[in-house]
Amino acid sequence: MRNVLALLVLSSGVAFAGPGFDGVGDRGEMPRLERRVAIEAFQFDEQEEKLLEMVKESNPEAYQRLLRLKERDEQAYVRQLFQIALRGQRMKIKPETSERFIVIQSLEVELLAMAARLAGETEAEQPKTRAAMTEVAGKLLDAKQADRRARVEDLNKKIAKIQEEIKVRDEERDARIEEYIDQLTRRKASGL
């Protein structure tokens, strides 16, 4: 199961992006400075082969899209690999994130299969398939909304923690200033 999950994680960002994707996910594009720092921090040479091999094994079509993207726009290619690696990291840290991700991905796969089937159906068969697609798309939207709510909850917890740290630092302001001055004067006295 772990290998299947890893392969799904690594291939999903590319597999469902479709033709002409630019590496921008549903969360929007990263701010330029943040993106540049993050991409530089990503150990590209060390992980590129490993990521590509895993994507190739799990989803050959996604692998081909990545190769075409690399030829067309190397920066977008690097961003996409970086996003795949980040997604894998997040899922290792929080198992509930991976559960939500699996639900979303399976619904997307189901919708893609239904859309392909719809294209080959007669006009008489299409309304039934379209109704089924509407139901699955509703479940997908609900799953994505639940994921967003969970992310907001996580962010609110982080904000509360930082606010508590600020409060403590405000309360300890004078002591912190004295401690800092003491450190500076000890360094000066010791010749540093």
Q: How would you characterize this protein structure?
A:
This protein is mostly helical. The chain has a domain at 1-93. It has helices spanning 2-15, 32-41, 44-58, 60-72, 74-93, 95-119, 126-171, 173-190. α1 (2-15) crosses α3 (44-58) and α3 crosses α5.
Provide the fold topology.
Blueprint: H1 2-15, H2 32-41, H3 44-58, H4 60-72, H5 74-93, H6 95-119, H7 126-171, H8 173-190
Offer a concise description of the structure:
By secondary structure, the protein is an all-alpha fold.
| Shape estimate | elongated
Tally of DSSP helical segments: 8
Q: Which structural class do the helices and strands define?
A: mainly alpha
User: How much helix is in the residues?
Assistant: over 70%
The number of E-state strands comes to 0
Rg, alpha carbons:
23 Å
The overall pLDDT average reads 77
Order of helices and strands: HHHHHHHH
**Biggest sheet overview:** none
Strand content: under 5%
Notable features of this structure?
0% strand, mainly alpha, 192 residues
